[in-house]
Design brief:
421 residues; alpha+beta; Rossmann fold; Uridine Diphospho-n-acetylenolpyruvylglucosamine Reductase, domain 3; 3 domains; six-stranded mixed β-sheet; five-stranded antiparallel β-sheet; 12 helices; 21 strands; 35% helix; elongated
Length: 421
């Protein structure tokens, strides 16, 4: 009978002269990591605990006290980063994401700032084989795109995960051998978090052989060749991809680029494979458009463009302080020689708003419907300057069109007014 025991001692396989920030929660996984670090790497390591302040203060204080005791015993410096009360909740609202994602993003940002400020080379996390299995199950259950099955990467930017191929039982064994006690995060038992539900209800039925198979799938997908597709993002309202770059890339890179473009203009919905196919056909066709809620995708000769279409709005003119949707700004200066000059007298009572289907503007060549200008420039919407019920300017250049000024104000002295990001 073959032994299931590891035949050679486990090593972290870390660069010999680099310094490491260990993401230390106090749980059994990160405690095992610093226990491994304490054997050979303690002089070039620091254990950093990020306090999210989303649990009870009593629980957090007991956890921090135990963490301090464990790191002292292992001879590794211990640091605490306080995010402050309400930081996670505010981030979740601002980014329109869940508490779990908000806490994770803030934690990594805080660790990266610490790494840079203190002169460390890497951030180490204690992700292991079970984490990889949970991640792949989560992504399969949510119909995530194929490229996401690369799962958790062993190395990503300045992050390394030296325990990624280690079994959970070996992690438990290491902590028990060290004689250490670990803390338990009370939120880990909350099955409203999908990962916790998977850990409790699905993971026990998955064999070690199957976990290794899923790790192998992740490694294989992660090793697929990549041909990065550039996505040019203009604030929160517009993104473009060059058609040739998209069509000549691998299918998984196409998906990733389209996902990135849609996310950059505010898409929160799951991207279905049918939509990917529709977009690729549109790019090949080089004409037409796809509407996806408040997002418009248009196909041109050399590129595909993704636009976020704002809902109706009215913003009184306040010079450079005028607030428009999607982070769009009003400027009183511009490098564009065609930027509009508008008399200050026409601005005192003016408002910016989204054009509607009935809007018209009187131009040098006659009265034009705003909708006809949108059709001419293949744009999904326009911002107009209205004064006493009359449209006096149309702003399209920030979307790639041309700004137009009414004949009433044409050739008059005034200040430069442009709408941009």
């Amino acid at each position: 009978m073959k032994s299931s025991k590891r035949q050679t001692p486990f090593t972290l396989n870390l660069p010999p002269r680099d310094k490491f920030v260990v993401a230390f929660s106090g749980g059994i996984d990160s405690l095992a990591l610093i226990a491994f670090m304490s054997e050979d790497e303690r002089k070039r390591s620091a254990a950093v605990y990020v306090d999210h302040s989303i649990r009870g203060r009593d629980e957090l204080d007991k956890e921090i006290s135990l963490n301090r005791k464990n790191t002292r015993k292992l001879g590794i410096p211990f640091y605490i980063i306080q995010l402050g009360d309400g930081a996670v909740e505010r981030y979740a609202l601002e980014k329109d994401c869940g508490t779990e994602a908000a806490a994770r993003n803030l934690r990594y940002s805080a660790l990266e700032r610490f790494r840079e400020e203190k002169g460390f080379d890497w951030i180490l996390t204690a992700h292991h084989q079970d984490d990889q299995t949970e991640t792949l199950i989560m992504r399969m259950m949510s119909s995530s795109p194929f490229w996401s099955y690369g799962g958790i990467r062993e190395m990503e930017g300045r992050i390394r995960r030296p325990l990624l191929n280690l079994e959970k039982k070996e992690i438990k064994k290491k902590v028990k051998e060290s004689g250490l006690k670990w803390s338990e995060d009370s939120t880990n038992s909350d099955e409203n978090y999908k990962r916790n539900w998977i850990r409790k209800n699905l993971l026990p039925s998955i064999s070690l052989k199957e976990k290794r198979l899923m790790s192998s799938i992740a490694s294989n997908v992660a090793s697929f060749p990549c041909r990065e597709v550039a996505v040019t993002v203009y604030g929160d309202y517009r993104a473009t991809i060059l058609s040739d770059s998209l069509l000549s890339s691998y299918p998984w890179d196409r998906e990733k680029a389209i996902f990135c473009a849609l996310s950059s203009v505010g898409n929160k919905e799951r991207i279905k494979r049918g939509l990917i196919s529709e977009i690729i056909k549109g790019v090949e066709r080089k004409t037409g458009r796809t509407e996806l809620g408040n997002i418009v995708i248009r196909y041109l000769k050399d590129r595909v463009e993704f636009f976020a279409v704002p809902s109706s709005f009215i913003s009184p003119y306040r010079g450079c302080d005028t607030i428009l949707p999607l982070g769009i700004k009003v400027s009183n200066t511009s490098d564009d020689p065609l930027a509009l000059r508008i008399p200050e007298s026409a601005l005192t009572t003016a408002v910016f708003r989204k054009a509607d289907e009935y809007d018209e503007i009187e131009l040098k060549d006659g009265v034009r419907k705003i909708s006809s200008l949108l059709k001419e420039y293949h744009l999904p919407y326009a911002i107009v300057l209205e004064n006493s019920g009359i449209v006096e300017a149309v702003f399209l250049s920030f979307l790639g069109g041309r700004d137009r000024l009414s004949i009433k104000l044409l050739n008059k002295e005034g200040i430069i007014v442009s709408v941009n990001q």
